[in-house]
Amino acid sequence: MITKQNFGRIALFVIYAWFGILKIVGQSPATPMITALMAKTVPSFISPHLFFILLGSFEALIGLMFMFPKIQKYTNILFVLHMLMVWTPLILTPTMVWSAWFVPTLEGQYIIKNLALIAIVLNLKREQSAIVAVQQQA
To answer: Is the Cβ–Cβ distance between 5 and 127 less than 8 Å?
Structure first.
């Protein structure tokens, strides 16, 4: 049976695995933005190709981890780390993400939509906490 929690987990899996795989195979539409961000943040000893494989693998791993409620705590840690990375272009590469004050480019919209992912994860965390509380009372 697909509950709202299961649907949230499946949605997160699809988004993270899909976007991660696109980075691994070199087909991500976020490549120019990530490359510009790399120039400002990542040491030059790592090649962009390797970085995209690592980043894509990291995203795909997070997606897979969302499918397992028992490791939600660890998944949330990786999710927060990923969100910190994802939001940095808003500050470090503003010309790529803002066309005017509070007018995001397509890349900016791509980043801002992560608010929906944060909402799903917060809901999963709340539901998981409620389940644990009920189990502890039993």
So the answer is: yes
- Whether the predicted model's global pTM rises above the 0.85 cut: yes
Q: How far apart are CA 68 and CA 75, in angstroms?
A: 9
Q: Domains of the chain: which residue ranges?
A: 4-137
Mean pLDDT of the chain, nearest integer: 92
pLDDT digits (tens, 9 = 90+) for 4-62: 889 999 999 999 999 999 999 999 999 999 999 998 888 778 899 999 999 999 999 99
d(CA 62, CA 59): 5
Confidence of residue 71 (pLDDT cuts 50, 70, 90): very high
* Integer Cα distance of 102 and 105 in angstroms: 10
Residues 112, 89: contact at Cβ < 8 Å?
no
Rounded to an integer, what distance in angstroms lies between the CA atom of residue 31 and that of residue 6?
31
The DSSP bridge partners found for residue 100 are 103
CA distance 54 to 48: 10
